[in-house]
TrEMBL record:
PANTHER family: HET DOMAIN-CONTAINING PROTEIN-RELATED, SUBTILISIN-LIKE SERINE PROTEASE. The chain crosses the membrane at residues 278-301, 313-338. Residues 33-42 have a biased composition (Low complexity). Signal peptide: none annotated. Residues 1-49 are annotated as: Disordered. Coiled coil: none annotated. Keywords: Membrane, Transmembrane, Transmembrane helix. Residues 12-22 have a biased composition (Polar residues). The keyword Transmembrane applies. The keyword Membrane applies. The lineage of its organism: Eukaryota, Fungi, Dikarya, Ascomycota, Pezizomycotina. It holds the Pfam family DUF6601. It comes from the Eukaryota. This is Uncharacterized protein.
Amino acid sequence: MSTGVGEESIPRQPTSRLSMSSRAPPFSVQAPTTAAASATSTQLENGRDQATDAWPASYHYYKDGSERKPLRAVANPVDDVDNFLEAQFSLGRLNGMLKHLWFAGSRRPAMQLHFQVAMGRQIVLADRMDLHLLWDSTGRLFMKPLPTFLLSPSDSPTSAGKDEALLLRCSETARSVALGFLYTYACLICSETDFHMANQMYLLPRKDDDSTIKWTAWKKLAREILRMHDVEKVHPRFQRAELRMSRLNTIHRLTGLSAFDPDVSSWNNYSSLFLDNLTWISAATILIALVLTAMQVGLATDRLKGDQGFQRASYGFTVFAILGPMCAFGLVVLAALLNLTMDLPVLFRDMRALARASVHGRGHQRGTGGTSSGLPP
C-alpha cells in the first residue's frame, strides 16, 4: 500500500459517458483560478508556463518503485509530467490488498463531513492518495485536499484539447483513482455546513487572494460528479469509503508476511515501535492466560484429571504459553535492530554530507574573508 502524501481544484476524468473527441471539459465548473491546468512541452518552451500555475511547486515520489524512506525524492512536476501524474494518483501498497479491503471497511459512500466531526474524528490533511479517508484508533481521519490541477479550466478555448492530451498520458488505473477520489468529495460535502467546514479546513481550492469557490458552483459540480458516477469506472479502493488503518496493517502483515512492517506506520521512534507491536502481543498474552486458567480448572475436575489427551494438550499449550510471548518479544527486538541497521547507513551518509558542507563552508569563508559584499551589515 506509501505511498506517498494538496493542490487546489477539482479533477477531470475521461469516462465512457464523455466523448474525448468532443473536446468538452468534463465539468462546467472550473477551479477558482484563471491559469490552465496543463501544458505541453512546446508551450513551456515558448514561455507559456502560466499554464502550470495550478500545479504544485514540487512533488515527492519514490525511486525504483520502492517506498523505503532513503529512496524518496523531490522533483519539479513540469520536468516529468508522466511521473508526476502517476505519483499523484498512486495508491501504493493498497493496490496489493484490494481483495482484502472488506476487512478494513464497508462498501458504502463516504459519510458527510459534519458527521465525521460529530463522531469525534479529527480531520488531518495528508496530500497522499493512499492515505485519503484512512482513520486510526486515535480518531484521526486523513484526507487529501482537492487539487486544483484536476479541475478543467473552461475559460481558455484551447485548454480542453491540451487537457485531453494530458489525461491520455495517465494510465487507466490513474483515471479510475481520480474518478473515485472526486466521488468521495461529492459524498463528503453535501450541505452548506459541510461546504463551510471544508473551506475552513482548506480541503477545497482557493484563489491567490484566498477566496473560495462559491456554494452554488460546488453544488453544480457535485451534481455533475454524481450524474457521471459509474461504479465500473471507479477504482475498487474507492468503492469503500473510510478504511481502518489498524486493519489495513493487519492485512499487510498477513498477506505481505511482514509482521513488524505495517503498511502505514504510526511510529516515528523506537519507543513507539515497541508500543505499536507490543499491543497485539499483550492482547494475545491475555487470551493465552484465559485459556490456561480454563485448563487449570479442567485439570481440577474428576472427569478431566485422568484424561491423557487433555493432559497432553495442557502440557503442549503450557509450553507454548511460556515460549510464545518470549519469542514474539524477541522478534520485536529483532525488528528494532533490523530497522536500526537500515537507518545507520542513511545516518552516516547524512553525517558525512554535513561534515563536507561544514568544511566547504569554512573554506569559502577563508577565501572570501577579505572581500566586501557591498551590502549593509
